[in-house]
Design a protein that fits this description.
Elements: E1 11-18, H1 22-33, E2 39-46, E3 50-55, E4 64-73, E5 76-84, H2 96-116
Antiparallel strand pairs: 1-5, 2-3, 3-4, 4-5
Length: 117
């Protein structure tokens, strides 16, 4: 049996702080991750703090696993998002993985603004 864990994959991690309590940020994350596409196979593994999803922006692109963790911070809530490509992807020439995370953060921020308006 071939062990794929020994091969390289592209990993990307970013974090951002949101000026809102963790339950409000978790609610915004749930709304954003409920969009299909680009998010499929979404689960909340720990209530209000950890989410797993697969980013698949188009039917012809392969999906990318993404983990989202919410942590309390002095200024509100910190979100740490991590993407991991398939085992056979060796690089991210077009910066897709950074864009997936940046788009996610932007969508969460927009949802939080809707709550405050």
């Amino acid at each position: 049996m071939f062990d794929h864990s020994t091969l390289m994959s592209v990993r990307c991690q970013k974090d951002d702080c949101f000026d809102a309590p963790q339950p409000a940020v978790a609610a915004a994350v749930r709304i954003v991750l409920s969009r299909q596409p680009p998010y499929v196979h979404t689960t909340e593994t720990q209530r209000d703090s950890t989410f797993k999803t697969n980013v698949k922006p188009s039917w012809w692109l392969l999906g990318t696993d993404m983990t989202v963790e919410l942590k309390p911070s002095p200024s509100g809530t910190q979100i740490v998002a991590k993407t991991t490509s398939q085992w056979f992807i060796m690089g991210d020439v077009f910066s897709y993985y950074n864009r997936y995370i940046d788009d996610f953060f932007g969508d969460v921020r927009a949802k939080l603004k809707c709550y405050r308006a």
